[in-house]
């Protein structure tokens, strides 16, 4: 690329890092990172997330913790995906308590878990037959959805039928029937059904 007088940027390098990691070639990524540094390009959260995911794919989850410490030390702000990768990785090696600790840390840092984060942790808990803990997370997830729906209403936005349907279906799937019926009634009152 530099021969054509086109200089790679962080996005270019992130594509390379991600491709190597998805192929399980995390050792080769060290060369890419060295080239980034040589070119004066700082790795960003996407770079580190790809690297962490790569180590999880090759079952070297212990290295993920080291990368996380590097991220923090270098002033790169971890995001929801950073935590999700770590939570998923620790769940895969049956270190669910470490995953739960990271999940709690997310809350402390005001990083909102997404569906993938919840699903990874719920899956890890279920595989260790910690069903009651998994169900607590499901209820928390449903409550978050209801809170968000309430906030949407509070600011004057009227949710459409598909928004209601997604939440209602999820509530029924997780035996939150009373909450689902309440939303169904709300849909009818608003003329959406």
TrEMBL record:
Keywords of this entry: Repeat
PPR repeat spans: 9-43, 44-78, 79-113, 114-148
Repeat in keyword set: yes
Signal sequence, renumbered to the chain: none
Record InterPro entries: PPR_rpt, TPR-like_helical_dom_sf
NCBIfam families cross-referenced by the UniProt entry: PPR
Protein name, entry field: Pentatricopeptide repeat-containing protein
């Amino acid at each position: 690329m530099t021969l054509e007088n086109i200089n790679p940027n962080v996005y270019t390098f992130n594509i390379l890092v991600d491709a190597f990691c998805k192929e399980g070639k995390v050792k080769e990524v060290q060369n890419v990172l060295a080239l980034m540094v040589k070119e004066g390009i700082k790795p960003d959260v996407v770079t580190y997330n790809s690297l962490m995911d790569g180590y999880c794919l090759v079952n070297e989850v212990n290295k993920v913790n080291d990368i996380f410490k590097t991220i923090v030390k270098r002033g790169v702000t971890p995001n929801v995906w950073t935590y999700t990768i770590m939570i998923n990785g620790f769940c895969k090696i049956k270190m669910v308590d470490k995953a739960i600790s990271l999940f709690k840390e997310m809350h402390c840092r005001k990083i909102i878990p997404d569906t993938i984060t919840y699903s990874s942790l719920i899956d890890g808990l279920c595989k260790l037959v910690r069903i009651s803990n998994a169900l607590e997370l499901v209820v928390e997830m449903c409550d978050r959805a209801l809170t968000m729906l309430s906030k949407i209403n509070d600011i004057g936005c009227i949710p459409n039928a598909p928004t209601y349907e997604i939440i209602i279906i999820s509530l029924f799937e997780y035996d939150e029937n009373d909450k689902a019926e309440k939303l169904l009634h709300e849909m009818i009152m608003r003329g959406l059904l």
